[in-house]
Amino acid sequence: MKHTQLTADAAPWRQPAPNQVRLYVWEWPIRISHWVMVLTIVSLSITGYYMHSPYFLAIGHTAYVMGTIRFVHLLSAFAFSFAILLRMVWFFFGNRWVRISQYIPTTRNRWKGMKAIAKFYTFVAWSPVAYIGHNPLAGAAYAVIYLMAIVEILTGFALYSQILGSHLLTVLIGWLPRLIDIQWLREIHFLIMFGFGMFFIHHLYTAILVSIEEHSGLMDSIFSGYKFVPQDHLKKELAEAPETK
Amino acid sequence: MNTSLQVDSPTPFRSALEARGVSRRQFVKFCGLMASTLALPHRYAHAISKAMEQVKRPVLVWLEFQDCTGNSESMLRSGSPNVGDIVIEMLSWEYHEVIMAGSGQHASDALERVVRECAGEYICVVEGSIPMAENGVYCTIGGRTALDIARQVCANAAVNIAIGACAWDGGIVSASPNPTGAVGLQEAVPGIKNLINLGGCPHNPVNTAAVLVHYLTFHELPALDQYRRPLFAYGNVIHDQCERRAHYDAGRYVQEWGDEGARKGWCLYKMGCKGPEATYNCPTVRWNEGTSWPVKAGHGCIACASHRFWDTKSPFYDRLPTVPGFGVDVKAEDIGWTATAVIAGATALQVGANMVRDRLKPPPADSDTHEPTNTSA
Ligand code: SF4
Questions:
Q1: What is the reported pTM?
Q2: Span B13-234: which CATH code?
Q3: How many angstroms separate the alpha carbon of residue B269 from the centre of ligand 1?
Q4: ipTM for the complex?
Q5: Residues of chain A neighbouring B253 (CB-CB closer than 8 A)
């Protein structure tokens, strides 16, 4: 088969190249949780930074700036927590490309793959190794991100329990401020925000890079759920690790 | 409320108060203050005044270890006529180094006698931390270590009151690096009975008086939290009781000392006020007969009634602790922004390098087997 320059994206109105199949990779909970996370992380960072260091002052006598910002932060925090929860559920009930095994490298193959991808990113290799789901390095990076998210949620609710004074929340999370002082929880909560910022920069870069280089419709896939995958590649992956779905 | 108090013949207690210049009216006001501090309905003021007049002056000993006498001072100079006057009159103070007449051997004998003769009945107040390093040699009184004295005196007391930050959790003495191995009373004497902690640097005498009054009136300690501190005093966040809170919610902050906001009484959040993370009834009980408290006076709260506040709530003029391993003048946000900038720079470099790689990339050799591969980010 001759090499053809593919311009197809995995959008429904585009057709896959002759050697590709249009494959449903990202199910709806994955896409919903992804976009809720994106929006809430942005709003949590903007409001959270104001709560740390109010970067503008209120004007006028009826202002309620900090109050509103805290309210938005709390709303976003609940949305974020539910998105993470939904995503966690899909670690166990999702398809093979979003399961927990994609994130925590437990097999030899995943570790090897991690090295191969690292070679591509450090300009030792010309091309990346192909994966339908996440490549092992990206998967491991996301595992760290989810861990950060969980720490953010735990510390956030611990801080919230102090101002809320709710019995239920204190029972659920009150053990944490007894182990680690509330100020250190606040520090961790604050610093992880920068971790998300750094991740955001790099995530955007790799997503665009891979999308442009590989023409797999990766950028569209997080909207539509579909990716264009070479037929033989799909066969190979299914044969290598026969799982349900 | 005055009508509910019967005017009867003066009891010895009341005559004693009068001799100190505390009028009946002032005493009734004191009872009202105690009831409201304890968050009791007003009618309890009557029960309190009754109990105070009839109580058989229980014995109190006040031990001082590694301290600055700030709690004693706070008690004795609490106002005029002061809470201290009434508290001193309602108890029989047998031992308190600062105010007792006797000294040396006489003083030590007085303490010995209380422990011997009133075992299980007296109230023991402890002020200051107890050093544990080198078997406690860093604080000895009359040749005995603080630890030794505390063990003996507290074991025989009916109630033990650890007063001030140092007696509660070691306070400034136990702050890092804690050379004397100082700890609070409850750590120094494990299994200590009927302990109540009254943190704060110093304690608020109104709270201490309220605890004593509660004990004398109801013969039990008030409801305590996980640190064995009374909930009536340590159950609420400062920030929620602060008179500057409206400015906080609105978004009006003091930006530097002495600026316009400071003159207008705006919120001290940006100046490092720890009100949002501290609990105490400081804003409502206040100091010097309810005159003022730090935030009202224009200085941020330093969370002096919080657990190990010297270590955990400092720096007092910044929102967050300094990150360990960096200099004391490096803020958490400086570290965060620098790291983010480094990642952004590295990513920009990678973008450039990728363009170069794309140029240099050899065309696929056997395009039959390796059609465009798919990779995921
Ligand atoms: S001054 Fe302190 S306690 Fe008062 S509202 Fe501001 S941050 Fe809260």
A1: 0.87
A2: 3.40.50.700
A3: 6
A4: 0.85
A5: 54, 57
